[in-house]
TrEMBL record:
Gene Ontology MF terms in the entry: diguanylate cyclase activity
TM stretches of this protein: 20-39, 45-70
Protein name: diguanylate cyclase
Enzyme class at the top of the EC tree: transferase
Alphabetical list of InterPro entries matching this protein: Diguanylate_Cyclase, GGDEF_dom, Nucleotide_cyclase, Rev_trsase/Diguanyl_cyclase
Database matches in SUPFAM superfamilies: Nucleotide cyclase (SSF55073)
NCBIfam families noted in UniProt: GGDEF (TIGR00254)
Domain spans labelled GGDEF: 120-253
Catalytic activity of the protein: 2 GTP = 3',3'-c-di-GMP + 2 diphosphate
PROSITE patterns xref list: GGDEF
Length: 264
């Protein structure tokens, strides 16, 4: 949508203009129709002529009003579509095409609440591109953006294949919510995701490299909010990074502690 949203002043000006147009068009049309039907002399009874003029005026008003109403509805439809597009863009990361942090949190929070209502297991996932700052320093920020795009493509394909909610949570960090899968299956899915990211080559301006990712999982106990689940997953993620990166770590609960599951 290229047109800006209408301001309140624009609405008032268009309304006044449409009313003026209606008045300007209605009066000439009525008298033209009267002259055509009865001739310039108007040799008919005054009562009959008055009734005809009133009928013609009504029909003209209905026609013009309908046209203006249609125009107004079309403008309103365009306005709503513009607002919807702006709303969508505010929830999508423009670089990767994934949900941004705001969009992910809204969608994931709703999905998590529905999972709790249906007594489905829910597992939060946080993923970070390993040594991303070093990639930017060595190859430049354009290459770093290319890395984010490639990893974003992997995540989009993975989300579509496994019906996951995935978003870019900020910088080189990504978040996901897995519903209806057991902790052991979630670990296997996370490992598949880790391998898929590691196999993707990134090429730009003659430079070619592969990247690795670290992943943290947190198993919800069925009552935590989204921020709590992702916070626990983030703790597991940084445990995986401290343990050497390029691996999956899972946190089952506050009391059981963290269990690092490395795959090489």
């Amino acid at each position: 949508m290229n047109d800006p949203l209408m301001t309140l002043g624009d609405v008032y000006r268009r309304t006044v203009r449409d009313v003026a147009i209606g008045l300007v068009l209605t009066v000439p049309l009525v008298w033209l129709a009267y002259a055509y039907l009865f001739g310039p002399e108007g040799n008919v009874s005054s009562l009959y002529a008055t009734g005809c003029v009133a009928l013609l005026g009504t029909l003209a008003s209905i026609g013009i009003g309908g046209a203006m109403s249609l125009r107004s509805n079309l403008l309103q439809q365009k306005l709503i579509a513009t607002q919807a597009e702006l709303l969508r863009l505010s929830r999508v990361d423009q670089l990767t095409g994934l949900l941004n942090r705001r969009g992910f949190n809204e969608v994931a929070a709703k999905a998590l609440a529905e999972a709790y209502d249906r007594h489905l297991p829910a597992i939060g996932l946080m993923m970070d591109i390993d040594r991303f700052k070093g990639i930017n320093d060595q190859y430049g920020h354009d290459f770093g953006d290319a890395v984010l795009v490639e990893i974003g493509d992997v995540l989009k394909s993975f989300a579509k294949e496994h019906s996951l909610v995935i978003g870019r949570h900020g910088g080189e960090e990504f978040a996901a919510l897995l519903l209806g899968v057991s902790p052991s299956d979630a670990v296997l899915l996370a490992e598949q995701l880790r391998q898929a990211c590691g196999q993707r080559e990134v090429a730009r301006n003659g430079a070619l490299t592969k990247v690795t990712v670290s992943i943290g999982l947190a198993v919800s106990k069925g009552s935590e909010g989204l921020s709590k689940v992702l916070g626990l997953a983030d703790e597991a993620l940084y445990r995986a990074k401290r343990a050497g990166r390029d691996q999956v770590s899972v946190r089952y609960s506050d009391t059981i502690g963290v269990s690092a599951l490395g795959f090489t």
